[in-house]
Amino acid sequence: MTRFKIPRWPFYFLKWMLGITLAGAVLGAIIFPLVGLIFETGYTPSQLVMNGVKTLGFFFGIWAPGTALVLTVKKVYEAKKAGDLPEEETSESSA
């Protein structure tokens, strides 16, 4: 009886995607208030933080899936090439 093994690549993908989106939100929370205060936009700092989180989080979220897919394929390919993946996770295994 063989035990079902969960492949690692979905976790790599989610890690990259969430990390990229979170990085955008954090950058937006830092950059928007600084620029807003420099140019005296008339918004409160909390409004600027929320606008930054929403705007840059959205923009980074648009690019995150594609970037995460490329980085995941690269990581799995390199692990497969180095022989670090078990046979069940490679596409060459036969059922």
Automatic annotation (TrEMBL):
The chain crosses the membrane at residues 12-35, 55-73. Keywords: Membrane, Transmembrane, Transmembrane helix. The keyword Transmembrane helix applies. This is Uncharacterized protein.
